[in-house]
Amino acid sequence: MSLKIILRKYFSIILNILGLAPKFWQDSSKYFVTIDYHYFSDNNEISHPSLEINRNILELQLKFFQKNMHIIDPKHLGNNLFSMLKSDMSSILFTIDDADISFKENFDLFQKYKIPVILFVPFGLCLKQNTRDGLMSRILRSFFEIEKNKLLSLKQKEGFFNSLESASMENLNKIYKDLLPRRDKIDPISSRVLLSIEELQKLSRDSLITIGSHSMSHPILSEVPEKWLNWELSTSKKYLQIVNGDEKYFAYPYGFKASTNSEIKQKLKKLGIKYAFLTRSTVITTDSDKLELGRVGMLNFFNARYLRGLAGRAFEVYDKLLLR
Ligand SMILES: [Zn+2]
Question: Which residue range(s) make up the domain with 188?
């Protein structure tokens, strides 16, 4: 396990023991914490320690949150984010990124503890490979999994994007086949099985599930040319409507600070997005920029002090110390 993950675990516990975390709670009606999950697993061998949670641990976490915290329902999150927070209890909002199949397999636990979630979906990777948008998305994803392509200029990337738009399905298949073996930095998302559009349609009928957009091909949006960016945003909106999602919500792929900028935020606003989430561990207050909302990544770990510290802003302090 990496030092960073160990530090993250114990930082929250230490703050809690020192009594620092409880101080933050005194005004719990003024802020809330958003949790970010990715993958769940049945066995004890966790392949991505910062992204994957064992089912038994997930159950302990959900049970703890249900008992000790006010759970925010995204279906009731209106314009005033703060009107429903409680002064005597930390509030928490649950989000799950990347539409992994393991969410469906573990959704029964969210049902058992009645925990509503926002599911952020990279739609292009959920589409079948034999559809044009599905194939385009896999090509665009693979493009950035070749390290040297990240260094290309915006103009060069735009040239690549344009060449896809005018290509036949047959040529797109050829381009994809050519890219696959050249990838030298494969993202975990490319080796996962994602939920299909049909499965998402079914899931979105459940009152506990709200679906939001997480782009089409899951790129770092600030690193793609404008035309490509427009495609990621407007095409994903189209599929969001097909699965009956809520267009208010968006999560930036990767979600570090530089994964967004004022130009991207302007476009999101125009598309009707009111709340866009990063993965920086800031809590959400009345002063937060609603298109740069923070989230805390959950670890495969159960400890009540850890979870209390997490809901009590410990990770905001942690991120500041590490200058993230
Ligand atoms: Zn993601």
Answer: 129-193
